[in-house]
Amino acid sequence: GGAVRAVGKAASITGVGIGALSTKMAGDFQKSLLEISTLMGDMPVDSLNIKLKRMSSELRSVSASSGLALDSLSKARYDIVSAGFSEAADSAAVLDASARLAFGGVTSAAEAADLLTTSLNALGLDADNVNQVSDELFMTVKLGKTTMTELAASMGQVLPFAKGMGMDLKGVGASMATLTASGISTAQATTSLR
């Protein structure tokens, strides 16, 4: 009897802890949705509520299909909208590609979104090119000795110059892969290429 009471007490304490954590996570998710809504411009409350419900549903769906945490996806969505991809179809396409790149590139959705939006904006591309850009970035990591996290920190320093010289992402990626594979760090390779 004493053992059963001890297990029951431990289970109730655990249940209270899980409930508190769930409430905090739900509050954090709602807060992140409201932060994203600040970037959407002025709109009637009804329209805003509809957009927030759609966005919530979309983020939950991407989280379920990718296995990525809602907080990382929410941060990614904020960065995507902030980077100028505020149309629903554009931000959804970039978020989906970010989730896939994060999973394949072993990074967070927020870092993948940062890398994708930086690449798209620096090269003057639109959301229709996001899958091609994602594939080229993945190949850079696969063929070089770098990570998505390192690329996210460095590519913004070289892409504007590459665009000015008429170089595309495939050329930049090949150069970065070659330099990093030969032992040069990603940051040094970026500086050298720039």
Tell me what the structure shows:
With 194 residues, the chain is an all-alpha fold. 80% of the residues lie in helices and 0% in strands. It has nine helices and no strands. The protein has helices spanning 2-37, 45-66, 70-82, 88-105, 109-122, 130-143, 148-164, 169-181, 186-193. Helix 5 (109-122) packs parallel to helix 7. It is globular and about 60 Å long. Mean pLDDT is 84; it is low at 19-25.
List the main descriptive attributes of the protein structure presented here:
9 helices; mainly alpha; 194 residues
Summarize the structure.
It is built from 9 helices and no strands.
| Biggest sheet overview | none
Q: What's the shape?
A: globular
Low-confidence segments, given as residue ranges, are 19-25
**Helix-strand makeup class:** mainly alpha
- The residue-averaged pLDDT reads 84
Q: Helix amount, in percent?
A: over 70%
| Total DSSP E strands | 0
Radius of gyration: 21 Å
Number of helices: 9
- The SSE order reads HHHHHHHHH
Strand content: under 5%
What is the straight-line distance between the termini?
72 Å
Question: Any chance you could write out the topology, listing elements then pairs?
Answer:
Blueprint: H1 2-37, H2 45-66, H3 70-82, H4 88-105, H5 109-122, H6 130-143, H7 148-164, H8 169-181, H9 186-193
Helix pairs in contact: 1-3, 2-3, 2-4, 3-4, 3-5, 4-5, 4-6, 5-7, 6-8, 7-9, 8-9
